[in-house]
Amino acid sequence: MSQLLPTNYVAPISGAGLGLRRSLLDTLEQSTPDDIQFMEVAPENWINLGGRLGKKFRRYTERFPFVCHGLSLSIGSPAPLNTELLHAIKKLMQEHGIRYYSEHLSYCSDDGQLYDLLPIPFTEEAVDYVAARIQQAQDILGQRIAIENSSYYCAPQQEMSESEFINAVIKKADCALLLDVNNIYVNSINHRYDPFEFLASLPGERTAYIHIAGHYEEADDLRVDTHGTAIIDSVWALLEKSYALFGVKPTLLERDFNIPPLPELMSELDFIKQRQSQCL
User: Fold this and answer.
1) Which of 81, 82, 83, 111 shows the smallest number of beta carbons within 10 Å?
2) DSSP reduced 3-state for 223
3) What is the pLDDT of residue 6?
4) In this structure, are residues 223 and 215 in contact, taking their beta carbons and an 8 Å threshold?
């Protein structure tokens, strides 16, 4: 591993954050770091972006702390790791002073790019394979990264539990965890386990930051991770439990579509801040 990697696992951000979509560039123009403590972007949407949008993005990165959350590195893919993308992400982070990078513990490519995040088999072989690719990514970026516990709808070739797999990858790769409490809830319904027991089994001391979002109720026994609705009480309860177990962590509100009026969006962000204040 590179000697540039820090010894801690925590992202250099704090408070409550919001994912910045291009559609929100004008809407959030008057927001301040008192309203939103940090922002997150998918780097693939902003690499080599110039012109009017590039200038607007620069105005945001000059005002707010930023993190990157990757969509297409495909850390579990059978295809070679996309080092060209990683170098482009590193350049973007350096140009804009972006403080951290995270990715999904899943894959979305082989010979071509897919548009879904697919589950990695929970096997010892996959642990070794994925951990080596995470280490390679960390060496290129020159920093420790966080890997997100992903939602999934089937679990092929299970040799260990989801929790055992996540713990093993994070330990072997010496990376951080991006804890997504909505994904825990969605998976707990779809795969029938206790979400609070699952949460307690994760390496919370390595949590860099947290994601929280809404989801779609397809049926009584099926939830779909959409980031397109308001957060429900059961997911808020998981966030509060994560603070109780692991301490208050930077927490990001994800909303990818069906974006409500700004006051409604900011009220959810305020709910995060309130829960953080109560747990400090």
Assistant:
1) 111
2) strand
3) 64
4) yes
